[in-house]
Design goal:
Strand order of the largest sheet: 7-6-8-9-10-12-13
Low-confidence stretches: 1-25
Strand content: 15-25%
Mean pLDDT: 91
Oligomer: single chain
Distance between the termini: 80 Å
Number of helices: 13
Radius of gyration: 24 Å
Largest sheet: 7 strands, mixed
Length: 324
């Protein structure tokens, strides 16, 4: 009898372990699969928040709220935390991962070659992922959307607003490779116009004030690219450039609204929507490896009315719309 119960107990344990090891994806009330989508967002600020929201909204609109479960996590601006977040999402068995900003994409691309990864708010994928001979498609399990507004047009905007400017300070975070990429291209474009440029790089938020102060002392105009650290510290930048009377041309609307005069900006919400539509295609069977990187559907010339008034600057064209 004891032997019988021992065998019976062992059988129950084996069946229990088998059940634990063969958990299926959750299902909706009608039995359909519920997709689990994880997101690693580098840092919390309006541009990245809008991209994540647009991504979620596009998926819910296409599949229905009951068909998808989101796990959205913010990495507080730290690459190591991005890796921790991504590895957690992988262990959860996510069907797809959104990597919002360059550090998040780098972490996700390094952590998995199986789960589809879509980047967003990435300026240049070739720079972010160190890809030579860029063709527009990452390949493997990675694709996504780029937040790159035409850099030649941003450089032309500096000349349009400040035709007498001779020295432009390029202020960016040295820890963000795509920021370096942007200032390099803008410097080349400004050089064609006979305008001198100087790079002023900060390593993190701790030295932004010192770097921006130095840039103000040496520049007629400052250019700040699409840069996550700058976007999270626009108040610190504004507190220096405004008293100094040095205008800032920004790479995106969020930075411009915080400390800039004008920008050629995309809608990060629309960018997120485009990324979400890509995600839906992948969940429905599309091959992520063949999907080229997509760009924002449109760019808009905008200006910061408050800063324009404070600095006494004349708006050069009626093509510009005020940032709401």
């Amino acid at each position: 009898m004891k032997k019988f119960f021992a065998i019976l107990l062992a059988l129950v344990m084996v069946l229990g372990l088998a059940a634990c090891g063969s958990q299926e994806a959750p299902a909706a009330d009608d039995g359909a699969k519920v997709y689990k989508i994880g997101a690693c967002q580098l840092i919390q600020h309006p541009a990245l928040d809008a991209a994540t929201q647009g991504f979620q909204d596009a998926i819910v609109e296409a599949l229905g709220a009951d068909a998808v479960e989101f796990d959205i996590q913010v990495a507080s601006g730290d690459f190591t935390t991005c890796s921790t977040v991504v590895n957690g999402l992988i262990s959860e068995g996510c069907d797809l991962i959104l990597a919002n900003a360059t550090a998040a994409l780098q972490a996700a691309a390094s952590a998995t070659s199986d789960i589809p990864v879509l980047g967003t708010s990435i300026t240049d994928y070739a720079t972010a992922l160190e890809i030579d001979n860029w063709t527009g498609t990452v390949g493997g399990n990675v694709s996504g959307t780029s937040d790159l507004a035409p850099l030649s047009e941003q450089a032309a905007m500096i000349k349009e607003w400040f035709p007498e400017a001779q020295n432009v300070g390029l202020v960016f975070c040295s820890a963000e490779p795509n920021s370096k990429y942007q200032v390099t291209v803008v410097a080349e474009e400004l050089a064609k116009m006979g305008i001198n440029t100087t790079e002023f790089a900060f390593t993190d938020s701790n030295d932004i004030s010192a770097v921006v102060t130095a840039a103000c002392a040496a520049s007629d105009v400052i250019y700040v690219p699409t840069d996550n650290t700058a976007a999270n510290n626009t108040e610190s930048i504004a507190n220096i450039v405004e008293p100094a009377g040095i205008p800032v041309i920004a790479g995106e609307e969020g930075i411009c609204s915080g400390c800039g005069v004008a920008t050629l900006s995309i809608s990060y919400y629309d960018l997120g929507v485009a990324t979400g539509k890509m995600a839906v295609k992948i969940l429905q069977g599309a091959d992520v490896s063949t999907m080229p990187v997509e760009f924002a559907p449109q760019v808009t010339k905008k200006y910061n009315a408050a800063m324009v008034e404070k600095l006494g600057i004349e708006i050069p064209s009626d093509e510009y719309v005020v940032i709401e």
